[in-house]
Structures are given as C-alpha cells and as structure tokens.
C-alpha cells in the first residue's frame, strides 16, 4: 500500500482519453468502504460529464482552467442528516456545527481512498476545494443538508508524475508519551 501512497500525485494535465463509468464506480467503491465515525457513511458522489456543468463548476472553483481537460469531475458531498436529523441547515464555510466537522472528516477519508485507488488503477486525479458552497450548490442542485467536500477531476495523466511535493520530516510530527517529547 505504501507504494501507491508514495507514488500518488495531484495531476493537473489530462489526456482527452475517456474514463469509463465502470472505472469511476470502482473508485467510488473504494470510497464506499472507508471507515467513518459511528459508521455513518455521510458521503455521496455526483459524476459530472456534461461540458456545461463542468464549465460552471470550474468557474465556481476559482476558474482552475486545467480542470477542463479531465473527462470527469467527481463531486463528493457529505450529508449532515447522518448526525443531526432536524434542519434547517445552513452549511457553509463559516458554519460552526460540530456535526459538520464530523461529516467532513469522514468524507475526507473516503476521498483519500478514492485518490489512492485512482493511482492504483493508472488514473490521474486531484482533489480541488477552492470554492464556496453557495457557488457550487445551485449548479448541481445540492440540497441544504449536504456539504460539498471536493471537486475531483479524473482522467489519464498527460504528464509524468511530478516530483513529490515536500513533506514534513517524520521526526517533526512524532512525540512519545507526551506532547513535545521527541526522545523515545
Ligand atoms: C482539501 C484539499 C483541497 C485542495 N484543493 C486544490 C485546488 O483547489 N487546486 C489544486 O490545484 N490543488 C488542490 N489540492 C491539491 C494539493 O495542492 C496537493 O494535494 C498538495 O499540494 C500536495 O501535492 P500532492 O497531492 O501531489 O502530493 C487540494 C488538496 C486537498 C487535500
């Protein structure tokens, strides 16, 4: 598993080559199996192929034009009713609900599964999140109980795997027995 974890990259150049629904569903299968608090499984996915809808999403996602080349934009939402049944819900970037943190946390695990499965399958992807809920929600008709966690272009890479982005060294994040104690 470390192999895919090490080789995965955010890819921002795609071939025009299409990706089959079966391949997308296989990625979503890897997300479906993710762990979640209380097994609440808050995630939902919208597979976007329509050029008009893709363009609108890209405009909402800070006009990241490179996303256009990807044949599919996969949108992941998280459902707060897994945690709290009664609305009204006002889920945006400034919401302070504890349940929102929980569903975003769980959906993030599912998305990471999906990114790793894409790497395993020879597909290219990049999690994007440079948007506001209010801009993306109406494009897709996302109901108020859902929070949009990411828009993920998926395709085949038109570039070699870029060099790894820097990561913090292990020793800067590991403590033993108590915070700040780096010595075992
Ligand atoms: C929550 C989240 C949001 C991101 N949003 C964007 C984005 O809007 N545009 C983009 O180009 N990359 C985006 N990225 C990709 C990161 O820039 C990338 O993961 C990071 O630089 C490390 O590079 P790597 O994925 O190739 O290892 C996002 C990643 C995450 C996890």
Tally of individual helices? 5
Distance between the termini: 27 Å
Helical content, roughly?
Answer: 25-40%
* Structural class computed from helices and strand pairing: alpha+beta
Bound ligand species: flavin mononucleotide
* Mass-distribution shape: globular
Structure summarized in a few sentences:
With 184 residues, the protein is α+β, with helices and mostly antiparallel strands.
Describe the protein's topology.
Blueprint: H1 2-7, H2 21-32, E1 43-48, H3 51-60, E2 72-79, H4 98-120, E3 124-125, H5 133-140, E4 146-155
Antiparallel strand pairs: 1-2, 2-4, 3-4
Helix pairs in contact: 2-4, 3-5
Bound molecules: flavin mononucleotide.
Q: Explain this structure to me?
A:
The protein is of the alpha+beta class. The protein has a single domain, classed as NADH Oxidase. Helices cover 32% and strands 14% of the residues. It contains 5 helices and 4 strands. A 4-stranded antiparallel β-sheet has the order 1-2-4-3, with helices on both faces. Helix 2 crosses helix 4 and helix 3 packs antiparallel against helix 5. The protein is globular and about 55 Å long. The relative contact order is 0.23. Flavin mononucleotide (FMN) binds next to loops.
List keywords for this structure.
alpha+beta, 184 residues, NADH Oxidase, 32% helix, 5 helices, binds flavin mononucleotide, 4-stranded antiparallel beta sheet
């Amino acid at each position: 598993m470390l192999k895919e974890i090490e080789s995965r990259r955010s890819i921002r150049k795609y071939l025009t080559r299409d990706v089959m629904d079966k391949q997308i569903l296989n990625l979503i299968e890897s997300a479906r199996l993710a762990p979640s608090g209380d097994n609440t499984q808050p995630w939902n996915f919208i597979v976007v192929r329509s050029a008009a809808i893709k363009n609108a999403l890209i405009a909402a996602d800070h006009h990241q034009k490179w996303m256009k080349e990807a044949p599919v934009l996969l949108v992941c939402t998280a459902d707060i009713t897994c945690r709290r049944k009664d609305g009204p819900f006002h889920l945006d970037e400034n919401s302070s609900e504890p349940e929102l943190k929980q569903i975003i946390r769980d959906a993030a695990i599912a998305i990471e599964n999906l990114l790793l499965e894409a790497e395993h399958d020879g597909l290219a992807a990049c999690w994007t999140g440079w948007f506001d809920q209010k801009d993306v929600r109406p494009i897709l008709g996302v109901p108020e109980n859902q929070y949009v966690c990411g828009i993920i272009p998926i395709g085949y890479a038109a570039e070699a795997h870029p060099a790894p982005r820097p990561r913090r060294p292990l020793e800067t994040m590991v403590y033993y027995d108590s915070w700040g104690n780096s010595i075992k």
